[in-house]
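Inputs:
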Amino acid sequence: MKKTIGKPVLAVGPFHPLQEEIEFFQLTIDGEIVTDIDVRISYNHRGIEKISETLQYDQVPFLVSRICGICSASHPLAYVQAVEEMADITPPDRAMYIRTIINELERIHSHLLWVGLGGHFIGYDTVFMWAWKYREPVLELLEEITGNRNNYGNVKVGGCREDIKDEIIPRMLKELETVERKTDMLTNAILDDPVLHARLKGVGILTREDAIKCAVTGPTARGSGVDIDVRRDDPYAAYSDLDWKVIVQPEGDVFAKAVVRLLETFEAIKIIRQALNKLPGGPIAVEVKDIPAGEAVGHVEAPRGETFHYVRGDGGNTPVRHKVRAPSYVNVPSFAASCIGQSISDVTLTLASVDPCYSCTERIAVIDSDNKIVCDYNMLVKLSREKTQRIKEESGLEGITLKEE
Amino acid sequence: MSYEALKSKLDQISDKLTGIDVKSDKRIFLNCDADNALAVNKFIFEDIGARFCIETGIDCDDRFEIIYHYSYDQTGCIINVKASIFDRDDPRIDSLTPVVSAAEWIEREIHDILGINFNGHPRMERLILADDWPEGVYPMRKDSVKQ
Amino acid sequence: MSWNIWALKKSPWVFHVNTGACNNCDIEIVNCLTPKFDVERFGIKLVGSPRHADALLVTGAVTAQARPRLEEVYRQTPKPCVVFAIGACACDRGIFHNSYHVVGPVDKIIKAIDPDAIIAYVPGCPPKPEAIISGVVKALAVL
Ligand code: SF4
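Outputs:
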């Protein structure tokens, strides 16, 4: 870590609720303003790339779906696409549609999860509870299709493992309608709330130039006006057959990123609906004989951004090198650009706006040395909530109201 | 810029490359030596305007390879620049971080797991391995003993 | 039953430690708290510091970097406490068993610093929220 003699330092982590990987943040502050930020990862380094070299091509999807619990459909898909490119395999149409559906269901539950946690950080626990409640039906649908609520393990080289049975399609359509209605309610409540406008607008701005320089992807980039989306730019699965649009917001602040994610949820619902109606018949997998030597890349638009996999094989039955780049790997370093100059009460929110995979819900600060003030996570959330409260009082507004029809 | 335009643009740096392998319109592999890698990357990032995805470090027994992956989003083309480092005892290559700040983490990671030194990297510190990980043990090298 | 075990069984407060999990186990733990399962009905509460906790919910295979932190958290937790190893990773490293950076499983690390530690296992990858709740109930029943 950087040496910061004589300046007050805030330690955030290593057990921090925002990080999929347990990470350690060190914020240097001047008064209330953050002047520098430093990150230490490694807490979650499990050597997946090395383990992958000991597994057979067909076993790797189970490993890569366990890189990140929320992106557990995107990672295997990116890997499988790379292998299929290497071996020149084209999966059947039905498999392509099923992959699309699973990936979009994942996007819905991931974005709802984000909305909930975002609400939690600014002191709107109702939003947290409600968003997570409406996420459950999506997980149940996934369980019904693939047999597991998370870590679906549904893609394999050459197709899919589990089919979507005709009986459950009407039920899926019905559930989607409920989810859509509830998301609509949440979206309206959030977008109409003047307190939230005051609290989130202009906070944690990542400018378009910084976004390009930091090479961020996904909603973090699209919230900063960078119009990229792998689903459109390099279409895979069935996306090119369906009608949907890429959501881009130019502002770059936390609010813009929230808007991108909420609107993307609707797009995801639209995509699933079309895909279910168009679902072609036929087999769901082709037989794969052997994988020749070669190298290939596969990339997929995960809920958080582009997931990138590079696979090299030597003709044997295991990959000789498998590189994984998760979206948070490029999104997290952009904190430096968006946090510096912010007040500490906005830091948790700014970190959260990147959606760096939430995992634990509390933290401790075990690191303590001479010139470090140990401030724990609860205190940061408290600061963040107090600011919301202040805005409410100053504006005389009540804040969010949720009504169940 | 269409795929053809992209291709003709790449001809400008053909003297720095040791090979071009076009697998399809959307997948281009370029080979170069470690000494030219920085110039080639600079061209692709600044002149072509491709988005930096990631670097991959590979131990190929007789040499190390660093592959720089870029995505040219207008056409969905992935450009891979493969630089070979032949000196196994003291592997080094010029750092890309001064040009592309997004490369900071991955170069630190490659340094951790493969022991490749990046000349001119602003902060060559440990990133991905534990604090008490022994110096000089590089887990992704082929000859590293399995624990 | 000593009085402090008796007290421990009433509305246990839990602290959640991620030692290198893939996130799914963690999300399922949070899921237990949200409206569908809502374990706060039974007085089970997620707290923000190990010093307030009666039980630790440990997920993940324990990476080399997370190990000292796990030990520190265990030391900070008032005894007696129950350690729940949630998920295949925490129980026996699961799919990451041959990784160079994984030093777990959880019971090995905890037993090394406290041989009398009470450890309960909830297998699954990830265990469903129902499984986590059932594991906690069963463990408290045998204490
Ligand atoms: S047990 Fe499975 S779900 Fe839980 S952390 Fe390990 S890999 Fe992830």
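Remarks. Chain A has 15 helices and nine strands. The interface with chain B takes residues 40-42, 45, 47, 49-50, 85, 212-215, 217, 228, 230, 233-235, 295-297, 299, 306, 308, 310, 312, 321, 323, 325, 329-330, 333 of chain A (CB under 8 Å).
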